[in-house]
Amino acid sequence: MLLAPPPPPPLPPPAIEQPAPRQASYGLVTGRAAAGTLRILVRAGGRLLADRPLGGRRFSLRVSLPEGESTVRVTALDAGGRRAASSVGPVLGLPRAARPRVVRERADPVLVRAARRLAAAYPGAAGIHVQSLTSGAGGAWNARARFPAASTLKLAIAVAALARTDGPPPAGSLVDGLLLRMLVHSDNAAANALEVWLAGSTSAGSGAVNALLRAIGVVETEMYGGYEMERTTSGRIPARVEEQPSWGVGKYTTARDLATLLRAVWLASGGRGPLSGRGIDAAEARYLLFVLGRVADHGKLDREVGRLPGVTVLHKAGWVDDARHDAGLVFWRGGVYAAAVLTWSGRGAGVGSDALAGRMARAALDRFRG
Fold this sequence. Notes:
Elements: E1 15-18, E2 23-25, E3 28-32, E4 37-44, E5 47-53, E6 58-62, E7 68-78, E8 83-93, E9 106-107, H1 109-120, E10 125-132, E11 137-141, E12 147-148, H2 154-164, H3 174-184, H4 188-199, H5 202-215, E13 252-253, H6 255-268, H7 282-292, H8 302-305, E14 312-319, E15 323-332, E16 335-344, H9 351-369
Parallel strand pairs: 2-8, 9-11
Antiparallel strand pairs: 1-3, 3-6, 4-5, 4-7, 7-8, 10-11, 10-16, 12-13, 14-15, 15-16
Helix pairs in contact: 1-9, 2-3, 2-4, 2-5, 3-4, 4-5
């Protein structure tokens, strides 16, 4: 009696290198498949994104990921019909057109006028800087005036902390937990704890943050210790001081500096720019973008554009009694722009500041898409 041959062993699943869990992705899918694999399929968000032949064992392809968080599934198929799959997630999908590259900065007269007009309508002092990172065009008003920084500089603390880690912090680790609390919920205690982790005290930690900022060209910003614990140019985008609010001493920053910092994080997510040579690798920058995508504070830069299909806003806001700001990256299918809108009013800053941020973000998106 002849025995049936044993069934072939199962096909080993593919090893996915990119994207990685808890990171942003511009649609690059890379990895290694088992010997004999003939095709690679990529799915996310319930859709088939790619079905490609495979000539060797390594695969590298670009797909258009769904916006927001999703799980990416890669399936390998061989000639005998065997298949095996691996999944990775959550992954924050960003547009392929927004992949980091270096472009020349240039002033856009329409956006310069829009920034001036919107700032003039605000009942207080405002600083604005917007720039398409994919074309270089932008506009600004009062972009080098110093404003109380409030929680916007928690982004700078995050950058300094990641410069000291070896890769993205593991999920559930001390640094991961502090970064999530500090950025997603703007927790002051977590910000202070990260400064102490950086250099032993909040004052020394703020010094480390300032040193990193100076090294990447953010020169008109001052971290100035920890956070209080409360109980409750020609051809370039014009960056000048038109109106300097008088607010005393403490942490300060400018609209241009915040936009510069955001651009540096975006460039680093592609292994480019000034941060990539100062301890921030691409995976760490993509992790930081992922965390910014979970920020729970809405109704500012995303006030109008956040409701539009195909638009993703990653941002960090900050406010005290007299000042209210938001700064972030706005992604749409055609690219990405950085926006920083800072406001101050001696009578108190409130919802009018949020409305200004929303209107400027919408004006920039309309211009860049138009």
